[in-house]
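Q: What would this chain look like folded?
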Amino acid sequence: MKLKKENSKWYFILFPAVAMMLGWGLRGHIGGGPYGAMIPGAMVALCIGMLLELPAWTTSILVVFSVFGIGMGGEMTYGQTLGFLRNPETVWWGTAGTTLKGAVWGLLGGIILSMGFYFRKIPKETFVVAFLLMISAMLVGFKLINDPMILYFSDPEKPRAESWAALLFGAIALLVYLKLKVDKSDYKVISRFAIWGLIGGALGFGLGGFWMVLGSRLPDVVFTSWWKSMEFWFGFLFGGTLGYATWLSRKEPYLVSLKEQGFPVLKNLSVWKELAIISATGLLIFWLIPHTIEWFTEAAIENNMEGGSIKQEIARLLDSYAMSGLIFILVLLRYPKIGWQIGITLTFCYTAIDLFRDFYPGTNTFSPFTMHFFWVLLTTAVVAVLVSWFSRKPNSMSNLFLLLIWSCISISVIRMFVHMENFNVANLSLCQIICGRFIVDIFFVVSAIGLTLFIIKKQGNQ
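A: My prediction, written as structure tokens:
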């Protein structure tokens, strides 16, 4: 009998690095904020599941925890922090800010992602209490550091509410609570992903910011996508370190045992019930809660809402992506078979919301009687049906990964037609067209093709 060859360390590193590089670039292009960060979160979890040869159901759980954990960092504002990098007098302060925020992003993302390994081992109540403690600790971080601007990395003359300390306090609360509640061997894996996530986030965002510095020194070159270069670098290093943590954890007894765990005996979930549950979850998160907050506060919601009054604090709590992530986990605990729909369909849904909002500017996005609502519902429904179909077929993990990649690439291609003036290239040279106007779109497609080949090769080796 021929023994299967183990994937090399570099395969463990490069596969998730390329996936997260693509996902991170797409995140800034077809969906911002924490919901946009679900894209790299889903992609890196799928890579980890394939590398560890986990069953499809186990990987679907990991994807949900990953979109929750990686999405959390999207709560942080950093546009003004990156703006410091363009000024020689503030470049190091900006670098300190991006490094710190990247570290917090990676720390919290690594913790929550790795908790997904233990979905069947950790009691349900522990997950709920852990995330409630995280949210409570976030409020403490807001009040002690972020709100009074004790350590502030945005422009004080045009202040924006920051949240990095809130996320840091939340991460610390999770680590302390899990230290008390899980086995020593399990905590070793969680802390390993936390540490390597921290390192990858810090290096990815801290060093990635120097693309912005370079761009500010080369204003007249054809290539100008320095912000996107930063995002690609951030995703590549972050994904690579999470891949390395996976390599270090590949022989942990419990993770090895997951390979042999069959699909748990669960109550049958029909296709129609599956679609109904994910529809209700999506409407709750993307429509009902935001609409309720705007009614409650009598103001449009925005990322990093400020606190202060009781009403504002409640609104900030409800608007926090931590609350959306908690809803993901609660739905998953009640309906474990819904994992793929949360991880793939809801990740896609926000990209559709973001896309059609640009196609129909000024529309009331909360009204169900608009073309915006119609197209979001239609495209998301198509993806949800495909997720349901592929999840019940052989090679489901690979096919769902490819569905996520190419559905997001499709959104990015359609987005090109939002601004038709981009196709006015009559007076541009070939270099200006390729290296300037469409370089990012070309990079997306090339990266997606490369990642597709990775997936097909991995599927063929299993």
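Residues 180 and 187 are 9 Å apart (CA to CA).
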